[in-house]
Specification:
Arc Repressor Mutant, subunit A, mainly alpha, Rna Polymerase Sigma Factor, Chain: A, two-stranded antiparallel sheet
Length: about 200
């Protein structure tokens, strides 16, 4: 069935249309939630779908050529916000974020070797990160949010965001080194810089 027809059916709360759209996007939703370390993944993806169908009227498919890609982008933002809400309400995460709090002086050194590594190459390593590190890393590196935006979304300080990103990169460096995907201290000669072979 044409995607536009499914969307129209969903706006009318047609269960068959909702089921077809759910089947179409369920894999995408699970992968998105998994990449952000949101657990239980299925429960959070399901919550994302509830919001998706609730706000489907706000999506205007007539403005875009690639309707499916645009719909996924719109849904991804819903899923990411759902993951963020989950972390903010999760008592375990609140304990983790205080353990990672560092002085505000921690600097963001900008581009490093991780910025040159493809998403596919690091996704399995990201999955091994602690939840607090994984969340900040994904929001900063994958979604392009600033530390100020991350701090606002997660109710943490800018310093904590910078600290978690730094520690996430160091942890990834260690994980990838063990897997033979990168080498530390080689390449352009900068201390701690990464080179990938």
């Amino acid at each position: 069935m044409h995607l536009g027809i499914l969307l129209e059916g969903c706006r009318k709360n047609d269960r068959a249309s909702q089921k077809q759209l759910y089947d179409l996007l369920s894999g995408f939703a699970l992968k998105t939630c998994y990449s952000f370390g949101a657990y239980p993944v299925q429960d959070i993806a399901h919550e994302g779908f509830i919001k998706f169908f609730k706000y489907i009227d706000q999506f205007d498919e007539t403005r875009y050529e690639d309707m499916l890609a645009t719909l996924k982008g719109w849904f991804k933002r819903i899923l990411i916000n759902t993951c963020i809400d989950h972390y903010r309400k999760n008592a375990a995460y609140k304990k983790i974020k205080f353990l990672t709090k560092e002085p505000e002086e921690i600097q963001d050194h900008g581009s490093n070797g991780f910025d040159n590594l493809s998403y596919k190459e690091i996704i399995s390593a990201i999955a091994e990160l602690p939840p607090a590190y994984k969340t900040v890393f994904n929001l900063f590196v994958v979604e392009g949010l600033s530390h100020e935006e991350i701090a606002r979304h997660l109710s943490i300080s800018v310093g904590t965001s910078k600290s978690n990103l730094f520690k996430a990169r160091e942890k990834l460096k260690s994980i990838l080194s063990q897997k033979g995907k990168c080498k530390v201290g080689q390449g352009n000669g900068l201390p701690g810089q990464l080179s990938f072979g």
